[in-house]
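Appendix B, Record 12. Input sequence as logged:
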Amino acid sequence: MASVASEQNAAQNKFDLQNLAAAAIANEKEKEVQAVRPTEETGETNEDAERKKREEEENEKNKENKDEEKEEKSPPLHQLDIKV
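Logged structural output:
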């Protein structure tokens, strides 16, 4: 009976070691993923910030274009009346 119990004990220890190794590998992979990929919240924040920057740049360009158009459309300040 002592030999059967020791064999069962050895098998149980083997399973415990395998479970420990698998848990360690899974934990390492999870840490690697966290280190490489930013969280979803951070990603959304970055996308929002980029979108806002693009919108602000477009607004500035539109304002500049409108200012240029106004300058072009305004009548000249003085007229040259040249007669020969």
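The mean pLDDT is 80.
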